[in-house]
Amino acid sequence: MTEIDQRLGPEFFDRVQRRVRDGLRAEGFDAFLSDHPEDIAYLSGFFHHPSERPVAIWIESDGRVVLLLPELEREYAQTQSAHAELVAFQEYPGVVSPFTAFASAVGGGRRRVGFATTISFARLAAARESLPAAEFVPSDLLTRSRFVKFPEEVALHREAARVTDRMLEAGVALVKEAIAGGLELPTEAELERHVTATGTRTMYTEHRNVVVASLLAGGLVYSGANSAFPHGLPSVNRLRAGDTFMLSLGCAVGGRFVEGERTFVLGEPTQDQRRFHDTIHRAQRIGRETIRAGLECREANRLCLDVIREAGLGEYIRHRQGHGIGLGMHEPPWLEDGDPTLLEEGMIVSNEPGIYVPGHAGYRISDSMLVTAEGAEALTTYPRSLDDCTIAL
């Protein structure tokens, strides 16, 4: 297969920045400020570990892109070919504050500046103090700019889906090998370490310029009653015959995430296990069939979750159908009753209905879906039916 290069080139960031500048002009902004690591990576290609030392990006409607960062990060940004003008400060809190150095670089004057609402109060206050003539206005413009993926991003998401499918396969293989060898079944934590190692090893073996994101590969692995907590963390619980267990996995290729989740049964399913799993399988299939451009997120959510309600299992619903995926594993838009956002071709969203029966288990199936002109494509492809997700003992 062709080796994947995870690092995107300058032409990509030129197009990203043009898109954002078009949005700034359309909404009457002279500039935009964000300190969110995902926004910084989107606009410049610089991935970093956030800390108390501020890193922020500033993009102007007429051209300039400035990346504020500590001096200790300058060389690291250069090795990543950060697509921005670098403005470094010596240390934090510093004799001269970081945002004073920033203001010296971007200049003063009256400007209407949008800012990401994720920015902390302290950093926003520092920016306002350093640019007293500017009008700072909260805006989700940059978040919305990230909704529709460019072709290069879709290619990275596709590769992340392939790796995620391989992680699912590796998790099932570990359990089957233990059964075939008459060995102890793995614990949730052992299974999690195995699938994480599979994902990272695949990338470092088969890819060039691996981009280390907030989560390179991994996920949640839980069994039995522990899986009734939608985001329960892996424990030392050992898988047992008759258990329902969940592999909730994902990875980021070039910083672009994908998730793929399947629910398995160890041994012949009981009547209840079959009912619960079959219901989620139907709901998830309806989600795959109905997600399309022009559909409101809240309507997609209703169509999917109504399958669970109509099966008499509505009391076990704990969350929405899904969420956007991109540089964040969870990002807008939200496939939920309160989000009227229209789905657009090129968006990627999760389709992950679930039910959670206290004291018994949770059941969830998830695919990352690319919204297309014809409907939606599931990027993750591991089999979903209970027959395919039953592991014989």
From TrEMBL:
GO terms for molecular function: proline dipeptidase activity. InterPro entries: Creatin/AminoP/Spt16_N (IPR029149), Creatinase/aminopeptidase-like (IPR036005), Creatinase_N (IPR000587), Pept_M24 (IPR000994), Peptidase_M24B (IPR050659). Pfam families: Creatinase_N, Peptidase_M24. Gene3D superfamilies: Creatinase/methionine aminopeptidase superfamily, Creatinase/prolidase N-terminal domain. The keyword Metal-binding does not apply. Keywords: Dipeptidase, Hydrolase, Protease. Residues 156-373 form the Peptidase M24 domain. The keyword Protease applies. Residues 19-143 form the Creatinase N-terminal domain. Its EC number is 3.4.13.9. Coiled coil: none annotated. This is Xaa-Pro dipeptidase. It comes from Microbacterium murale.
